[in-house]
Amino acid sequence: MRARLALASMAVLAAVCGCAATPGPDPAVAPTPATPAATANELRLQVGQSASVDDAGFKVTFEAVVADSRCPKGETCIWEGNATVRLTVTGAAGTQSLELHTSPRAGSGSARYESRSIRLVSLEPYPVAGREVAPAAYTATLSIERSDAGTATQ
Hints:
CATH topology: Tick-borne Encephalitis virus Glycoprotein, domain 1
Number of helices: 1
Structural class: mainly beta
Distance between the termini: 73 Å
CATH class: Mainly Beta
CATH architecture: Sandwich
Number of strands: 9
Oligomer: single chain
Helix content: 10-25%
Shape: elongated
Number of domains: 1
């Protein structure tokens, strides 16, 4: 009797939380590589990914995270730290390497290329105390908007 009651309770709980009806991914099917997600002016790239900014006529590549000294979650730090990302932008003005920073104290978080401003919005994952982030695990969110200046500068 107790076993039936326990089994019935688990079935009700699974039905309420939706656990029983939510199948997981098929382990036999290999995941497809993520494609860069873009909105009207925002772009998310993983390390090594490129995306064309069609209306601007250039391509942005997230090359690497050059340094990441951001204060890890779970630690107390004197300052927030900084991460530096390296991008390569290729278009009519040639190829330009850009380094953008997460902290305004360490350097600029934006740069211009042709008629656009490229700004680092966020870099994920955020470091956690005691855990190392694999270099390929980073995703940068960039904002690309029209700029007043028309030359590549940093």
